[in-house]
């Protein structure tokens, strides 16, 4: 097939133009790769400084990485997270801009949540944490969701929002799988949330799979202690002691010995023994309140003095010829009244030597 001469010329010119265009693009591509390498180098050095807790120095390198490669979401969010710890006001525009472009992005919402925590805006932080949990993650979504929920629960615990923790922990319990360290962390948080029954279930599973795990045995002991199962708690601490001796375990065993000796609630206890234990509890509660009243004379001394007088008369009374359960319960009610007055006037914080008394009376009142 014959090519018309002027078409030959046009074709030649097109090939030349294409070659020149390719030649022009080559330096641009080279420059882009160089910028990417420079950005990566700055990012790596910045994250290295972060690991050394040199946040302010890291900011400049992370800012450089973000400036060189604006489209890199990872650089952007790392800079935002670092700024949140150093200069929260500077971090906010950057993070909110990223969130505006990627509203369902899990990492962006997590960065916003952390920023709100730094600024002390807890309700907003909680909202962003939930968006991060249910947001989109490029990879390892399940791992990031679990870690984010843990972070939210820790925030609730520190903010003393314990009433909100159980719902989050129930969701987390279904997601944690079989990883031991994750399950241990879950159990510790269940205890902090005031859910010793659920914590004991997790710890029991851990100790069944590894009977030598002293950390989980101690955790199970604490959970059973919180449940009022003093004998089961003592058994767990004794098992833990076989693998890890220490003053902390000894202290818990001494506490449990005291609780077991004073506990007025075992089903097999006779009414007479329940009555005797009740008197001892009243005497301990009276002594505690009396010490606090003497140290704080500005309180309503007349009201407290009347209550203390009634309590001091109980041990001095002659034991009834027939001790019924109702008689013992009346004494325990007085112990509860003493402790209620103590908490109203002086708070619930008690010295370690009063822990047995606190646990006994709080259990009676529950």
Write the layout of secondary structure elements.
Layout: H1 5-51, H2 55-68, H3 73-86, H4 88-101, H5 106-118, H6 122-133, H7 141-158, H8 165-175, H9 180-192, H10 196-209, H11 214-227, H12 230-243, H13 247-262, H14 271-295, H15 301-316, H16 325-346, H17 355-365
Gyration radius, in Å: 33 Å
| Mean pLDDT reading | 87
Helix- and strand-based class? mainly alpha
**In terms of per-residue confidence, which ranges show pLDDT below 50 for 5 or more consecutive residues?**
none
Query: Which overall shape is indicated by the principal axes computed on the Cα atoms?
Result: elongated
Largest sheet: none
Count of alpha and pi helical runs: 17
Which series of helices and strands comes N to C?
A: HHHHHHHHHHHHHHHHH
**How much strand?**
under 5%
What is the number of strand segments?
A: 0
Measured as a percent range, the helix fraction is over 70%
End-to-end span in angstroms?
101 Å
């Amino acid at each position: 097939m014959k090519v018309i001469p002027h078409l030959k010329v046009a074709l030649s010119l097109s090939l030349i133009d294409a070659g020149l265009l390719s030649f022009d693009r080559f330096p641009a591509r080279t420059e882009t790769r160089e910028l990417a390498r420079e950005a990566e180098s700055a990012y790596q050095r910045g994250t290295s400084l972060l690991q050394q807790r040199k946040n302010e120095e890291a900011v400049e390198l992370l800012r450089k990485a973000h400036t060189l490669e604006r489209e890199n979401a990872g650089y952007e969010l790392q800079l935002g997270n670092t700024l949140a710890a150093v200069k929260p006001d500077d971090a906010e525009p950057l993070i909110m801009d990223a969130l505006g472009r990627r509203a369902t992005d899990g990492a962006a919402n997590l960065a916003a949540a952390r920023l709100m925590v730094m600024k002390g805006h807890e309700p907003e932080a909680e909202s962003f944490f939930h968006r991060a949990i249910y947001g989109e993650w490029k990879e390892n979504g399940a791992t990031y969701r679990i870690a984010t929920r843990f972070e939210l629960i820790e925030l609730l615990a520190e903010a003393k929002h314990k009433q909100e923790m159980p719902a989050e922990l129930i969701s987390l319990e279904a997601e944690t799988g079989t990883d031991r360290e994750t399950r241990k962390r879950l159990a510790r948080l269940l205890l902090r949330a005031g859910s010793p029954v659920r914590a004991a279930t997790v710890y029991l599973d851990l100790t069944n799979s590894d009977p030598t795990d002293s950390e989980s045995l101690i955790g199970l002991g604490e959970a059973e202690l919180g449940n009022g199962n003093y004998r089961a708690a003592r058994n767990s601490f004794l098992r833990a002691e076989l693998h890890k001796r220490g003053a902390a375990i000894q202290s818990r065993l001494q506490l449990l010995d005291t609780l077991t000796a004073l506990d007025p609630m075992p089903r097999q206890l006779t009414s007479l023994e329940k009555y005797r234990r009740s008197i001892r509890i009243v005497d301990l509660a009276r002594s505690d309140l009396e010490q606090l009243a003497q140290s704080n004379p500005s309180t309503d001394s007349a009201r407290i003095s009347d209550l203390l007088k009634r309590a001091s008369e109980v041990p001095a009374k002659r034991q009834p010829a027939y001790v019924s359960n109702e008689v013992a319960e009346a004494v325990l009610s007085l112990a509860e009244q003493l402790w209620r007055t103590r908490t109203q006037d002086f708070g619930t914080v008690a010295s370690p030597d009063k822990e047995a008394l606190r646990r006994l009376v709080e259990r009676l009142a529950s």
